[in-house]
Design brief:
Blueprint (H helix, E strand, L loop, with lengths): L29 H18 L6 H9 L11 H4 L6 E5 L5 E5 L2 H11 L6 E5 L4 H10 L4 E6 L2 H14 L5 E4 L12 E6 L8 H6 E13 L2 E10 L2 E9 L14 E6 L6 E5 L7 H8 L4 E10 L5 H10 L3 E6 L1 H5 L11 E6 L2 E9 L6 E9 L3 H19 L5 E6 L11 E4 L3 E6 L2
Parallel strand pairs: 3-4, 3-6, 4-5, 6-7
Antiparallel strand pairs: 1-2, 7-8, 8-9, 9-17, 10-11, 11-13, 12-16, 13-14, 14-15, 15-16, 17-19, 18-19
Length: 431
């Protein structure tokens, strides 16, 4: 399973990071301590609006979360934003985790799972399957699949220990779904997906819902799609970040290094076959920068994820700038984020989004743009113009995301950004 790498308001430059989970200390028995931590977790998730229905709340209360994360301190297991990493690959990349409770609750709410539903989960950890089992009840059926035998063995063991032996745990590449238990009313994908394989759509009942952390131009959103014939239409989406899918569907982002100093590395994150001239952009980074300020402001903990989605829709050269904290401390870049900062690349020049506080209280921040390279002024102004367009025309809007089969002709697609992938054509359109 995957995990959220950020909460609702990613830090960009001088903006504060979201508050840490509450610090707790108890001198009570382990049993009462666990119960109290669970209740506090649920209350916090309700405050965050991650829990919105009685069914999801009851599932979170019933399943013993700590059984699926042995050896991890209870305060972390029952924290809203803490993900337990359960496996890394040979390069140290996270490939499996027990997701943070906030993102699990959020996706369960997105899925709208009810009694009697047949549900497929792609990516196993056991815990989320147990929550789903509570939601579908005795009349429903839950199947969870993973490509890694270590993960499925672990899921089986913990599900049995927690009393959910009825969950079907299947060792399989999630790209192909699990046809033997299809059709499914709901499919919940808990690994980062670059595309939507045909098997997922084929195994989803007409009118059924699939929730998938879908990567689009480098941005991952947990998108709740409904099936309408052979296409998928989004109903809602949320910012998220998950460990990447393995197997046939694996497709990782590429890094183009711009600065290699240890602890201050800077790179561009490329997606969807993007090509850039890394050498010229490296040179550009080390030239004096230009800046443009937009007059558009945002609250300290207000999310800018919809702005980034608009920029990804509007700009052909959209990509993400990734940098270690040392790069900001040494003045190489002004903004850092584990997700990446919205960036526009044009030939030998690039510009990226930043912010500055508008008062000493640092409760409000103005969006700005820093540009590098021979055409820095022009590129920075283009990015600033789109930030202003978003504020003027789309700040209160939500995008509509749809998935069409790969052979769908352009004239049948809605106006907006079209992202061509291996199996699908993803469209992002705005009111």
């Amino acid at each position: 399973m995957g995990h959220l790498v950020w909460s609702t308001a990613p830090s960009v430059g001088d903006r504060p990071t979201p508050p840490h989970p509450r610090q707790r200390s108890y001198q009570v028995t382990d049993l009462s301590r666990t119960a109290q931590l669970r209740e506090e977790m649920i209350e916090e998730l309700k405050e965050l609006k991650a829990v919105r229905t009685a069914g999801v709340e009851a599932a979170l209360r019933k399943v013993p979360r700590h059984v699926f994360a042995p050896g991890v301190p209870l305060e972390k297991v029952y924290a809203a934003e803490y993900a337990v990493i359960t496996k890394k690959d040979e390069d140290g990349v996270h490939i499996s985790s027990v997701s943070a409770s906030r993102v699990q609750a959020l996706m369960l709410e997105q899925a709208e799972i009810g009694p009697g539903d047949r549900v497929l989960e792609i990516g196993s950890g056991g815990l989320n399957a147990a929550y789903i089992a509570e939601l579908v009840g005795e009349s429903g059926e839950v199947t969870t699949a993973d490509i890694d035998p270590d993960i499925t063995d672990r899921a089986k063991r913990f599900l049995t220990q927690a009393g959910y032996e009825r969950v079907n745990v299947v060792l399989a590449d999630g790209e192909g779904g699990v046809p033997e238990h299809a059709p499914y009313d709901k499919i919940v994908v808990t690994v980062g997906a670059w595309d939507i394989p045909p098997a997922w759509v084929e195994q989803l009942a007409e009118g059924g819902r699939i929730v998938v952390p879908l990567r689009m131009r480098g941005l991952t959103r947990s998108v709740a799609f409904n099936r309408v014939g052979d296409r998928l239409i989004s109903r809602e989406y949320e910012l998220c970040g998950f460990v990447p899918m393995q197997g046939v569907g694996e497709n990782r982002m590429r890094l183009v290094p711009l600065h290699d100093e240890e602890g201050a590395e800077v790179a561009l994150k490329l997606d969807d076959g993007q090509q850039v001239d890394g050498g010229r952009l490296r040179d550009a980074l080390h030239q004096p920068r230009t800046e443009v300020w937009t007059g558009i402001t945002i609250g300290g903990f207000e999310s800018n994820d919809n702005l980034d989605l608009w920029l990804a829709t509007a700009l052909d050269g959209f990509t993400l700038l990734s940098a270690k904290p040392g790069a900001r401390e040494r003045g190489i870049v002004a903004s850092v984020s584990p997700i990446g900062v919205a960036t526009l690349v044009d030939g030998d020049s690039f510009a990226y989004r930043t912010v500055r506080p508008t008062s000493e209280e640092r409760t409000l921040f103005e969006f700005g743009v820093y540009g590098h390279g021979p055409d820095a002024d022009k590129v920075a102004q283009r990015l600033a113009d789109e930030i202003q367009t978003w504020d003027r025309e789309h700040r209160a809007d939500r995008a509509r995301i749809e998935a069409y089969t790969r052979n769908t002709s352009d004239d049948l697609l809605p106006a907006g950004r079209v992202i061509d992938k291996r199996h699908t054509r993803i469209t992002i359109s705005w009111p």
